[in-house]
Amino acid sequence: MRGNSYLVQITSGRGPAECCLAVAKLTKAFLKEAKKSGLEAKVAERNAGPETNTLSSALIEISGKEMENFRKSWEGSVLWITKSPYRKFHKRKNWFVGVRFIERNTGKISSRRIEFQAVRASGPGGQHVNKTSTAVRATDLATGISVLAQDSRSQKQNKALALERLEAKFRERELADALDSASEQWETHLNLERGNPIRTFRGPEFREI
């Protein structure tokens, strides 16, 4: 599906077990609404919370057309109003979690910054599996990221595989850098937005109001 592509982080913001339960419930609600809106969404990563069936955070890959309105309806803090299922006499009923969207760079690496090198494919223990240089090493000169493809006896096919793997590895690094650089800023933002939730849910059944 063409259109904008994002990574969505749903996080408890270091909140207690109740917030982690809210993350797990909100992740299901988010995926359901994304599907209803005609978007493609799947969970890329889950970080378990302190209690069974809870999540401290979830990372969702989402893409499709008309993403802007969907993003605006979700990004920010989300409030869950309910009694604590873990602490019977606890007076607090308001539990906040955060939702943030990180736009993904789905473009390809420029061929001008990639160096391809033909090398001999090798088997276990360094044994050469053929006498011709059919394997291909691809290196992104800007970052130093390097991959090797030797799956095929065709140098052309190995070159295509190497490029595909290099782009995947490049996107992984971009994602990690984006998450690291934004984490502290997002926690500050979440603290500021607790009094103005973008969505509100109520009760154990997690019904939106």
Automatic annotation (TrEMBL):
Pfam families reported in the protein's UniProt record: RF-1 (PF00472)
Gene3D superfamilies: 3.30.160.20, 3.30.70.1660
Boundaries of every Prokaryotic-type class I peptide chain release factors domain copy: 120-136
SUPFAM superfamilies for this protein: Release factor
Membership in a protein family: Belongs to the prokaryotic/mitochondrial release factor family.
Example of a GO MF term: translation release factor activity
Name of this chain's protein: Peptide chain release factor H
